[in-house]
Amino acid sequence: MSGEPFPVSVTEVVLPFRCVDAGSRPGPSTAEQFDRAWPSYRRWFLHEGELPRASYAESRAALRRWMPELLADYDDLVAAVGGDDLKARFLSHWCPPALVAACSIAMLGSPRQLLVRNYDYPAVLSDTLALRTHWSGRTILGMADCGWGLMDGMNDAGLAVSIAFGGRRAVGQGFGIGLVVRYLLHMAATTDRAVQLLAGLPVHMSYNVAIVDAAGDRRVVHVAPDRPARQEWNWATCNRQGDTEWPAHAEYSRTVEREEALAALALDPGLDAGELVSAFLRPPLHRSLTESTWGTIYTAAYRPDRGTLSLLWPGDEWTLEVSGDAEGEHPRDELALVPDAVTVRTQVPRPEGIAVLR
Fold first, then answer.
1. How far apart are CA 128 and CA 209, in angstroms?
2. pTM over cut 0.90
3. Could you tell me the CATH superfamily of domain 8-23+100-356?
């Protein structure tokens, strides 16, 4: 099949995509979604055994220092999910375990603003939750991760942000990228402001952060725990920060092949939003769930000019509004390459030993 380094089989899975509006403060609906995912979150958060995680006091102090504007929402969220020490430390996103994925991102600027992203990840570990929040006076809609973090999202000012793993093994003291994305969307209305904020935040791993605003200003920022942030006036990114630094990950995720496909698209001066989105639904940007355990879970297309998020799959689409109030479900029955039951309960190996346990 795909040369996976562990036993796999093609299995029918249900991806329970849903949209939840969490209201003006963290409360019961947020807690319900968190409790649904907590068993797998907990396994992942504790999988390194005796290696100590940061204490609650250290985690909250990091939030107070680096993202004080989120502190009230954090405290409310911790209270909503029951307030215990382990959940509080997890929800701080401070110095979490290592986590890698494979994604492709491209953007169009004015007058056809668009951010489109493919999220490639193990099907059995994906959150599949579109979370809309109106906390602290800012409306944000995005694909949730780890409770209130976001892998991609857009705010009511038309700023869209998304991330791709940067293809480096360095791990340091900093925040998980999901909470960084939420912070940028909470604090910024323009790409320029988001880039300024991002440069001052510590991150625990390397990521490529794609940002586009309602005026069409689009940039990619390379962040890392061991070197300063570096911005590029670029329109697309996959899973490297320049040259290949982690060959095993680059080969497994096929990042060079995807980067070359995006570079070819960039040569078309008349490329429009529809054509770009269509390319993300075809190989090599789109990867079948039966081809790899890192198949494409969804394609997200954010339109800052319309205030919409469209979740797409070949032959299927679900569109949500950032400033709306609609909730709902859009389950997907898929055939997917899945590790055997023992592997799922313990770990999904990644190149050269990095693992996800969720």
1. 20
2. yes
3. Penicillin V Acylase; Chain A (3.60.60.10)
